[in-house]
Amino acid sequence: MKFIGVGAGSLVDAERVVSASAPDSAPLKRLIQDAKEEGSAIDLCQGKKCRSVLILDNGMIVLSSFEIDKIAAKLEAKD
After folding, report:
1. CB of 41 within 8 A of CB of 32?
2. 3-state SS, residue 28
3. Mean pLDDT, the chain, as a whole number?
């Protein structure tokens, strides 16, 4: 198991991350809104702007204030 820091002092298991994206597109905005309504979103932005969205293999959505490039570098470093 390899954990990566995603902000707010929180860690996510890198092996469970299916996708990492920027939250700018309309489909991702709808996905985030639906996940918040269903209670399957974990918001780690602490009032900052959401800059990346991690989709986990169990359907949970993790919102981070870290730039997508930083998250991608951490995910690539897991190997």
Report:
1. yes
2. helix
3. 94
pTM of the predicted model, to two decimals?
Answer: 0.91
The model's confidence at residue 77, banded by pLDDT at 50, 70 and 90, is: confident
Q: How many CA atoms lie within 13 A of 65 on its CB side?
A: 11
Residues with Cβ within 8 Å of 67's Cβ and at least 6 positions away in sequence, in order, are: 51, 52
Residues 72-78 have a mean pLDDT of: 86
Say which residue the tokens 């990566």 belong to. Answer: 4
In sequence order, what are the residues at sequence separation of 6 or more whose Cβ sits closer than 8 angstroms to the Cβ of residue 9? Answer: none
Specify whether the CB–CB gap between 50 and 65 falls below 8 A.
yes
